[in-house]
């Protein structure tokens, strides 16, 4: 990824009210000020979203500091002209980091895919499990209701069959 300041977005889908000041303190050190709103999926929880410009090192720092809070559900993304990076955090799963292509899709290198094949040792289910882990699917599954609620409090969510 290139050096410089790039377009970045932080979405805190769920922040317990008791953690609000800790989050604000960490982000204010980096010159970021959040505007909070009530969040409808978790009682007593808040939502915030902010777009800003920062370096990859600053993005890494933000992700690390927010993950240390431990009780948040958040996504943090940065896009350059040709690539990007995304972080997702969910309590219990921890911090996920993925590389993005220009279209915003997660990418895996040939070496990573070969490593997954080697680890799976011909077991299709194990390969699928490892691939889903590398693509952050467990994080996506948990964050999807929060993403939907961001756009409408009246969204009906259906579970995927299979």
UniProtKB/TrEMBL annotation:
A UniProt-annotated Pfam family: DUF3145
Name of the protein in its database record: Unannotated protein
Protein source organism: freshwater metagenome
């Amino acid at each position: 990824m290139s050096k410089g300041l790039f377009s970045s977005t932080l979405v805190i889908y769920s922040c317990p009210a008791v953690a609000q000041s800790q989050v604000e303190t960490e982000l204010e050190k980096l010159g970021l000020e959040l505007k909070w709103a009530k969040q409808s999926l978790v009682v007593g929880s808040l939502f915030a979203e902010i777009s800003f410009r920062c370096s990859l090192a600053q993005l890494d720092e933000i992700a690390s500091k927010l993950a240390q809070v431990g009780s948040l559900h958040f996504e943090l993304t940065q896009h350059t002209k040709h690539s990007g990076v995304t972080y997702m955090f969910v309590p219990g799963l921890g911090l996920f980091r993925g590389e993005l292509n220009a279209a915003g899709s997660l990418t895996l290198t040939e070496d990573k895919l070969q490593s997954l094949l080697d680890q799976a040792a011909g077991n299709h289910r194990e390969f699928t499990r490892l691939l889903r882990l590398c693509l952050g699917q467990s994080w996506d599954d948990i964050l999807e209701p929060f993403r939907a609620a961001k756009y409408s409090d009246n969204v009906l969510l259906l579970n995927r069959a299979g």
